[in-house]
Design brief:
Strand content: 15-25%
Strand order of the largest sheet: 1-9-7-6-2-4-5-10
Shape: elongated
Structural class: alpha+beta
Number of strands: 14
Helix content: 25-40%
Length: about 260
């Protein structure tokens, strides 16, 4: 459920969204003048090589200190957009649509308001926001002298896992420890399983352990190591990922 925010709430939510980003962040703000705290938060996520999209208005001017700060970040992409008036902040879990620019004076002095929403509970709103940011990116051009050479949409990003990972082999779509009768019954009736994100009943397939709706959401960021909530096999609540979609008990029972 979306939350209403007043000026103080918006400022705090923007800082929280930045410092807790784990996969990417998009900042859409016509005018930018960074607070010292937000510089520290952006630096900390850049140290983790988390992609950062910055979009501001073409006829606006970044102050030299902020421009120098952005250009020394390794994972930032800076864009200018004509006639930009929208203010929006997004990471892989939350979004904020607000009247507030990412401007120190606005955060300290102006009457502002906004709405914060979650990908988990407000998926349609989150998806529409991602799509609109993609359209803004396509209408933007790179900041001259910046690190980027072209717009990369949130939908096109592919996040490489930081460490090699083992996935369940496609050959093991039918758990090898099941008996002949169980396997035959599954082949006729279909084997029931659970979406690892929402828990909904789906067909068993460890290579695609999501329902249609959740797979569309997951594929926007395409992170095979993103933590999910349910075991694909038994549906128990536990930490799973696309690369390891079943709980330890099911793995022991069926695959070892």
């Amino acid at each position: 459920m979306a939350d209403f925010l007043d000026a103080l709430g918006v400022s705090a939510a923007i800082s929280d969204l930045i410092k807790n980003a784990a996969e990417q962040i998009s900042i859409v703000s016509p005018y930018i003048n960074l607070t010292p705290h937000n510089k520290k938060y952006l630096q900390s996520i850049d140290d983790k090589r988390i992609p950062i999209n910055i979009i501001y208005r073409s006829d606006a001017t970044l102050n030299p200190e902020d421009l120098a700060f952005f250009k020394q970040l390794q994972s930032v992409q800076i864009y200018k957009c004509n006639d930009l008036h929208a203010k929006c902040y997004l990471n892989e879990q939350f979004g904020i649509i607000t009247s507030m620019n990412m401007y120190e004076h606005s955060q300290s002095n102006n009457w502002e308001m906004g709405v914060r929403f979650s990908r988990e509970t407000d998926l349609d709103l989150y998806t529409q926001t991602v799509n609109e940011i993609d359209r803004i990116l396509k209408a933007s051009h790179p900041e001259r002298g910046g690190r980027t050479t072209g717009a990369t949409s949130a939908n096109q990003r592919v996040f490489e896992p930081k460490k090699p990972y083992k996935t369940i082999s496609p050959k093991l779509k039918t758990p090898p420890k099941k008996g002949f009768f169980e396997k035959a019954l599954d082949s006729v009736l279909g084997e029931e399983a659970h979406c690892i994100r929402c828990g909904e009943m789906i067909d068993y397939n460890p290579e695609k352990p999501y329902c249609t709706k959740c797979f569309a959401s997951w594929s926007r960021f395409n992170n095979p190591s993103y933590k999910e909530k349910f075991c694909h096999k038994c549906g128990v609540k536990c930490a799973t990922t696309k690369t390891r979609p079943i709980c330890d008990d099911c793995y022991t029972a069926y695959y070892r």
